[in-house]
Each structure stands twice: as structure tokens, then as C-alpha cells.
Amino acid sequence: MPSYLITGTSRGLGLEMASQLSKNSENLIFATARGAPTPALQKLIDGSSGRVVYVQLDAEKEESIKSAVVQVEKHLNGKGLDILINNAGVMPFALNGVATMDNLSSTFSTNVLSVHLVTSAFIPLLQKGTEKKVFNVSTTLGSIAHAATYRQMPAPAYAVTKAALNMLTVQYSLGYEDQGFTFIALTPGWLKTDLGGDAADLPVEVGAEATLKIVQERGKEDTGKFINIKVAGWEKAPGRMNYYDGEEVAW
Fold first, then answer.
1. Can you supply one Gene Ontology CC term for this chain's record (predicted)?
2. pLDDT tens by residue, 8-20
3. Fewer CB in a 10 Å sphere around the end CB: N or C, the chain?
4. What are the tens digits of pLDDT across the range 217-237?
């Protein structure tokens, strides 16, 4: 039974990934959230026949992370964790420009430091797993090469921290490639969630399905890469700011 741990499953992409994974009776999903399960997450848990397990995890607090590791380890009963998806994140705005940005520190804590804390804490369980895969949910807004494309987006702290997350992914990749690990940063697309808004490109179901395709199909040969989802009809279509071609994203 492949095991997954996903951070930030209360809503949006994290919840949808957990939901889609739960449809395969062979999967075990540890769905984490900072607080108590939302009604949507609780409904998923209740209908999963024990295959979706709620784990309280505040990714910015080391004691909470340590407690989550103990809970997951106990539930795995001697087995390892196969796949970690670091999905939790925030996108605050600075509507009056980068010089007025007053949220960089808190955004860095959520989008970068928490990913490091969670990943490092779960490394021992991942080392015992059969897949040894870690996926960090990033964004093309974190690409320095594409920065000018998104100059009108009033979210500089989001862009800066996701660029840092990409480098964190590479550093982990270099540090654990000799142990057979896969570390990949991926962009799930601009999705119609509370974070992405109603004007976004894709339904969350489409983004989650394309994201999980990367999770399940990419392996050691792709470690350290920054990968775009693939969605039919969105491969560099003329007139669109965003495209989803399944290829590597320029850093």
C-alpha cells in the first residue's frame, strides 16, 4: 500500500489531491492540517474506510511536526513513508508595490522554512519507504526567468519565497541523490481555489490530476528539476500568459 503525506489538505489543491488519491484502494493518505479538519476534509476521512488519516500538523512549529512524525510512524507500523507532498503555502499581497512589502518574513516562514522543517523531520521515515519521493508545490511566479511576465502580480513575497523554495528543492536533491531520493519542485497551475480565485485558468480537479501524474510518473532521473503540469489545449497557446506543457520550467 503506497503511503502519501500531504500538507495543507483543509481545502483547495491539497484536499483535492487527497480526494483523488483516496479513490485508489491501495493508497494510504496522511492528510495534514494546522487545525481541526474542515467539514470537507472530515467527509473525505469518514468515507475513506481508514485510508485517509488526519494528522494535526502546524508546519511552522517544530513540536507539532515532531508529534506528527510520531503519529505517522505509529500508523505505518514499521513501514516507511513513500511520498511527501509539501503543498501548504500562502500568497499575501503588496498592492502598493514591492517597497511596501511588509510580509516577507512571515511568508518565508510558511513557504520555505516550514517545508524544510517538515522534510527534515520526515526524512527518516522516507528513508524506510520504497519510493523516497518529495514534491514541493511551487509556481512559475517563482521563476526568475519568467519574472517580467508576472510583473503585474502584486505578490512579491510569494514570488521571492517560491524562488527560494526551488533552490531548497535543489539543495535537498543534491544532498540525498546518493540515497535514491527524488526531490522535485512542480507548478500545479493557476487553479480556481480560495488562493487562486475564480478568474484562474483551471478547475482544481484538473490541476490536482495533472499534479498527481507528475508525482506518480516522475522519478530519480528528474530529481532537482522544476516541472510544469501538462494539460491538453494549454501547451503554449497564443495569447495566454500561462501554459501547461509538462516540461521543465526555466529557473
1. cytoplasm
2. 999 999 999 999 9
3. N
4. 999 999 999 999 999 999 986
